[in-house]
Specification:
The complex is a heterodimer of chains A (301) and B (83). Chain A is of the alpha/beta class and 301 residues long. Chain A has helices spanning 8-17, 35-58, 71-84, 94-109, 123-129, 148-157, 159-165, 206-215, 239-268, 277-294, and strands spanning 63-64, 91-92, 134-143, 172-182, 185-197, 219-220, 237-238, 299-300. In chain A, the strands form two sheets. In chain A, strands 2, 3, 4, 5, 6 and 8 form a six-stranded mixed sheet that branches. In chain A, strands 1-7 form a two-stranded parallel ribbon. Chain B has one domain (3-81). Classes of the chains: A alpha/beta (301), B mainly alpha (83). Chain B: Keywords: Membrane, Transmembrane, Transmembrane helix.
Chain lengths: 301, 83
């Protein structure tokens, strides 16, 4: 029986294609879907995770979350939402803003991310320290967001934060957006403090509010190496961008290879003794879809 | 596709949809989302092994394949949610 002789170049081409396509004779999946390849992806993701967890501890501030947040946009965004929901606009209060500033600096100083500090200091302690005698008060926190709109949108979507945002019990608000290094990551912490003064005559005037808005700027944690005011956080590497891109790229690449596997196997009638490709696709697609839908650009508490 | 096969897939879709619902429901708590995705991965590996065992074609390599897919998917989700 005469054997079919193939040109070496054609052979090489097919060898390369088998990285992406199932093998007809061996009845195996594409090489990039083999157990060895899957183990390699697993190791790659584990190394990436280790890198992003270890580097901030060894070189604080190198990694971080790029952001450009300003108080004017946070304030206007909040009031826009309140007006849309038939609520009165809040006034920007200087005492609440100072309290928010102190809270943000305290979080950087003691390296925590919570409503209550490790020493037991509560949000109300910061407000009372500024001699703001309140009837009602509330606090919203955010970190790792890219811009002001993202922060306000996330607060609005979160039921507990929306409750503060749309509460009729508040007349005033104070903001702080402070840059610094938290847990080794360069980031911007946003503090929003709400209040209603016990003496309603003390509510900030429009003049006071405008002065405050014109003077507002992002400050930097006193612990940072460069205490100058910086309008935006620009770390050497943006953690969110890097991890999201890599994770979705690996997931998407796997889905692409699995779809290719189904298509080519059906076309060529290749029967493989493996797990179910369709089940793998279903699982990966549903997980990545869920992740995509719920993906938040930052963190809230 | 046999009726048994279709039933198995239906159970997979039902299970993953339930996990998906809770994943979206707890969208503001990343730690709970991480726990849900870990449980979903365990469920998927369990489904794969049980399904192949019931069909009488379970091998160590097939079980390993499901473990690899489950682990990899969980690690991808963990990386995005934790950092």
């Amino acid at each position: 029986m005469p054997s079919k002789i193939t040109h070496p170049k054609t052979h090489k081409k097919y060898q390369f294609l088998y990285h992406f396509l199932p093998h007809q004779q061996n009845k195996t999946r594409a090489r990039l879907l083999s157990h060895g390849a899957l183990l390699t992806y697993l190791a790659m993701v584990a190394i990436m995770l280790g890198f992003f967890l270890l580097v901030p501890k060894l070189f604080p501030g190198v990694l971080g979350y790029a952001s450009s947040i300003n108080i004017k946009d946070l304030f206007n965004g909040t009031n826009k939402i309140r007006v849309q929901n038939n609520l009165s606009e809040l006034r920007l209060n200087s005492e609440l803003s100072k309290a928010a500033q102190e809270k943000a600096k305290d979080m950087f100083k003691y390296n925590y991310w919570a409503h209550v500090s490790p020493t037991g200091t509560e949000p109300w302690d910061f407000i009372l320290a500024q001699n703001y005698d309140y009837m009602y008060a509330g606090e919203n926190l955010a970190k790792n967001f890219n811009d002001s709109k993202g922060v306000v949108d996330a607060w609005y979507r979160s039921p507990s934060h929306r409750e503060n945002l749309l509460s009729p019990n508040y007349d005033e608000v104070g903001y702080a957006a402070v840059n610094g290094v938290l847990d080794g990551y360069e980031t911007t912490l946003v503090v929003q403090l709400f209040g209603r003064p016990r003496n309603l005559a003390q509510i900030a005037t429009v003049q006071e509010q405008d002065n405050l808005l014109n003077n507002s700027q992002i400050s930097r944690s006193a612990l940072a190496r460069n205490p100058a005011t910086v309008p935006a956080v620009l770390p050497a590497l943006d953690v969110s961008l890097a991890t999201n891109t890599l994770s979705f790229a690996i997931g998407g690449f796997l889905i692409f290879l699995l779809i290719l596997d189904i298509w080519y196997s059906r076309k060529k009638g290749i029967l493989k003794f493996t797990g179910h490709t369709f089940a793998h696709i279903t699982f990966l697609v549903l997980v990545l879809l869920g992740l995509w839908i719920t993906l938040s650009p930052g963190r809230l508490i | 596709m046999s009726d048994k096969h279709a039933l198995h897939y239906l159970l997979l879709l039902l299970g993953l949809s339930i996990f998906g619902f809770f994943f979206v429901y707890f969208r503001y708590d990343q730690m709970i989302q991480i726990m849900i995705s870990a449980l979903a991965s365990i469920f998927y590996v369990g489904w794969g092994i049980t399904h192949h065992a019931l069909e009488g074609r379970l091998t160590k390599l097939i079980a390993f394949e499901y473990i690899l897919f489950g682990s990899l998917t969980f690690l991808l989700v963990f990386t995005v949610l934790y950092l």
